[in-house]
Amino acid sequence: MSLLFTPARIANLELPNRFVRSATNDRFTEGSGFITDRKVALYSELAAGGIGLIISSVTSVHPMGKHTVSQMSIAGDEYIPRLKKLTGAVHGKGAKIAIQLGHAGREAAAYWNTVNERSLAPSAVEGDPYFRGESRAMTEAEIWEVIEAYGEGARRAREAGFDAVQVHAAHMFLLPQFLSPQTNRRSDRWGGSLGNRLRIHREIYRAMRKTTGKDYPLFVKLGVQDGFAGGLAFDEGLRAAVELAQLGYEALEISQGLRGTPYQETEFRTGIDRREKEAYFRGWAAEVKKNVTVPVIMVGGLRTFELMEEVVRNGEADFVSLCRPLIREPGIVNEWKRGSRRRAACISCNKCLEANRRGEALACIFNRRADEQA
């Protein structure tokens, strides 16, 4: 049997294989962030398709941290009943599920500016080409309000039946904004040195641990390098990864921090048509793996079964995480388990992500065409 289909553990969480479904926005929500039956059906299909661990789409812990009005939310106890339906469906198919908690920070401006409100940010950096809209620097009280919101979000996640929490500290969200010297210009204890820029990470971990207890698995998806000059450099990103692992996070998914422009050349790369273009965060993940004792999850352009098996066999990562391939083929893992070794059919055209950014529900353009022709 392939190493990818051997059981593994993250803390006390037992997983049937090494395949993870990376957090993916699908827009299967309604109202102020309640999940719909379409989301339950999608996650049930993924679980039935062989994924060992599903990580949910990024879920808002605070109303001011939403990047769309209907983004999946866990900012109140009223969200718990529907979320229980989601976790129950996944568990019924034999998989595990973690919820990804996040706050969009400056990225929330795309929504909040439409209602004449500036989004929250570590610093109000003017003329930044990587963010849309206007933001303002958070006060000390607002920082602590967000920290508490993460703690309460983690509590609700456990009550809703999620097997773990993953903190979103990658891409364009609030935590990488605090970590990056490009967007964190604060002169107080929340900015300046790497230790100060990591302070909000430490306090969020402590808040979540306090509300969930010592035995509940907490992960982090960490951006270890920004996609432009002058941002977070990898040497600091590596130090951050080591500190967060030592702090108590029980798994690290290694990704990019603040992206450059266009995003297709940094965060979600296109044209992954051969093995040499795959695993574009492999070097970062492997270096982190050398320096931590907790499991590392590798994400980023993985398409070939043999390559994924290689990185796990070589000890460069403990798990492999897929996003776009599962949009086109939610059952590809089961196909590999049955013995197929064909490459995932995803061609990395990003039409799924472009449609999603326009507010459309997540779907592969090739699957849509097939449905239309049926």
Provide structural commentary:
The chain is α/β, with parallel strands linked by helices. It has a single domain, classed as Alpha-Beta Barrel (TIM Barrel). It has 14 helices and 15 strands.
Descriptive key words:
alpha/beta; TIM Barrel; eight-stranded parallel beta barrel
Oligomeric form: single chain
Give the overall average pLDDT.
91
Structural class by SSE content: alpha/beta
What's the arrangement of strands in the largest beta sheet?
3-6-8-11-12-13-14-15
Q: What's the structural domain tally?
A: 1
Q: In DSSP terms, counting alpha (H) and pi (I) runs of 4 or more, how many helices?
A: 14
Largest sheet composition: 8 strands, parallel, barrel
- Report the CATH architecture: Alpha-Beta Barrel
Number of strands: 15
Specify the helix fraction band: 25-40%
What fold name goes in the CATH topology slot? Answer: TIM Barrel
Q: List low-pLDDT spans.
A: 262-266, 369-374
Portion of residues in beta strands equals 5-15%
Would you kindly provide a brief summary of this structure?
With 374 residues, the protein is an alpha/beta fold. The chain is 36% helix and 15% strand.
Write the layout of secondary structure elements.
Elements: E1 8-10, E2 13-15, E3 19-21, E4 29-30, E5 34-35, H1 37-48, E6 53-55, E7 59-60, H2 80-92, E8 96-102, H3 109-112, E9 119-121, E10 135-137, H4 140-159, E11 164-169, H5 174-179, H6 194-197, H7 199-212, E12 218-223, H8 234-247, E13 251-255, H9 282-291, E14 296-299, H10 305-313, E15 319-322, H11 324-328, H12 332-337, H13 351-357, H14 365-373
